[in-house]
Amino acid sequence: MRAAPRPPQDLLVAPAGLALLLWWEASGWDLALSRVYGSPQGFVLREHWLLRGVLHDGGRLLAGAALAATLAWAALGDAVAMARRMRWAWTATVVLCLLAVPTLKRLSSTSCPWDLEEFGGLASYVPHWMLMRVDGGPGQCFPSGHAVAAFAFVPLYFQWRRARPRRAALLLLASVALGVLFGWTQLARGAHFASHSLWTAWLCWVIGAAAARVLEAEAQPTRVPASRPAA
After folding, report:
1. pLDDT at residue 172 is higher than 80
2. What pTM does this model have?
């Protein structure tokens, strides 16, 4: 039986999220939140064993294990649950998120909070959306490359939301919860502003939603028009 058409909720979430991000940018809360953890002497939690050793380095290992599991499912998963081609298509979407955010980060002229003069560095604060201005620092700090270790798996929600809604909800919850945790880790260490992680989350949602519009349409069975009886 063909599923009922899904309303374009994904297309509403993306601009709503963008509006919230723009509101956040205008609020000036990036600096305010970083000042909670930083001072002219720097960020006291920058090298903390829990934040750097467990939540940062350990988070990367966890993301690597999750990616390995996703690749294994794509190669060896049950064809009854999902066709091989679709499994690989969704895995490629996750990989796209993992590649897109670090690529944008590498091209960015925005420096990290710990590079700013206010926190003991040399750079001046320039909002990352002011693309034509440089802050005098090393740059390459927007969006958050660590938060993508969790948010990159948001597309798995779209992958399973029709066939396994409960699994989809659990995957989305896990990705968002870990993404928030990783984002806070880098905020407290002075490695990123909060908006850097929020933009990473938004980009991964948009990539997943765009993939869903294409892949879910392809997965729908084609209706064969009924033949007319011979006259």
Report:
1. yes
2. 0.90
